[in-house]
Write a structure and sequence with these properties.
- Helices cover 61% and strands 9% of the residues.
- It has four helices and two strands.
- The termini are far apart.
- It has one domain.
- With 106 residues, the chain is mainly alpha-helical.
Length: 106
C-alpha cells in the first residue's frame, strides 16, 4: 500500500510545498476544501485522489495513509471509509501546520 502512495505522489504534478506563512495558510485552505475520493478497489488496492490539486504532496500522502489506516480498522465500504478519512483531516491539517511552523521557525 505504501508503494501505491508513492506512485500516487509521482503521478501528480509535483506540488510546491509552502515557503511562507501566507503560502501555508493558502495550502491548508485548499486542503480543507478538497474532497478525497477514497475507495477500495475490487483488486484490493486503495484508491485515494483529491478532487482538486492540493499544493502539498505531504498532505495528500498523510490523507491517503489515514485512509489506509481506516481500511485496516475495518472501514471498507465507501461511505464508512470517506467518513473515517474526513474525520482525520482536521488533525492532519493541525499536525502539518505544527510541523511546518517548527521547521520554519525564525
Amino acid at each position: 500500500m505504501i508503494i501505491a502512495l508513492f506512485a500516487m505522489m509521482a503521478f501528480q504534478e509535483a506540488p510546491i510545498e509552502p515557503t511562507t506563512r501566507a503560502d501555508l495558510d493558502a495550502v491548508l485552505a485548499d486542503f480543507r476544501l478538497a474532497k478525497f475520493d477514497v475507495s477500495l478497489g475490487t483488486d484490493g488496492k486503495l484508491n485515494c485522489t483529491p478532487d482538486r490539486k492540493v499544493a502539498s504532496a505531504e498532505l495528500s500522502i498523510r490523507t491517503c495513509m489515514a485512509a489506509a489506516n481506516c481500511i485496516m480498522t475495518g472501514k471498507r465500504d465507501k461511505a464508512a471509509l470517506t467518513q473515517c478519512v474526513d474525520g482525520d483531516r482536521a488533525d492532519i491539517a493541525k499536525d502539518y501546520r505544527r510541523d511546518w511552523l517548527k521547521s520554519h521557525a525564525k
